[in-house]
């Protein structure tokens, strides 16, 4: 195996530092005892972590984001799995156009989508509702779920399905016991990526959220419009800690390489 040279190692180290530095700065500022954003600081304090309890709006917004991300990603997968299997298996007129249509939300700026959704849902009488948020988020996360599921379906060995059919497996049994396990890494990867996109979205959601349905990014955006204290950094640090814990557990029990790369083989664990 060819080793990286000194120049490559320096470049990689610089790249990692540039990527991680903003996260470290946010986490360090969250521990400041001052009443304003400051770094370096004279000491460390949990003052702003305790302050989160005095703002239940952040806690409520976190649960809204969590539920919205999980539900919209699950619904997106219900459409992405059959769509991916159809596109990967069959050759029909308009196949490429259909695939482009499914991926089109990636090419439209979220500001434009937010304004369009706002006008549509207001006309439909769903403005400010949680149902409108779910529908909008399903549309924007669907391409992410589709791409990874499609990659898994394209690389699937069809001979296994043919063997199962020859042994008398029906349509539902074939899908449940053969097809789904084969594409499961892509399905899980698609769900994870779709969830992250939904949980983190602000540009579109800010047009649709209303009191009671505000997501965490929207709540943080509204807070920093009127305040300059480190409370938002403490909330961000908590989200970062939860994310890192989830990634560590996911890597321990499933394997990040399978989630991020969609590998279906043995991970060597």
TrEMBL record:
The chain crosses the membrane at residues 7-31, 58-85, 97-118, 130-153, 174-196, 231-250. Residues 62-250 form the ABC transmembrane type-1 domain. One of its GO terms (biological process) is transmembrane transport. It comes from the Bacteria. It is found in: Cell inner membrane; Cell membrane. InterPro entries: MetI-like, MetI-like_sf. Belongs to the binding-protein-dependent transport system permease family. CDD domains: TM_PBP2 (cd06261). Keywords: Cell inner membrane, Cell membrane, Membrane, Transmembrane, Transmembrane helix, Transport. It is a multi-pass membrane protein. This is ABC transporter permease. The keyword Secreted does not apply. One of its GO terms (cellular component) is plasma membrane. Gene3D superfamilies: MetI-like (1.10.3720.10).
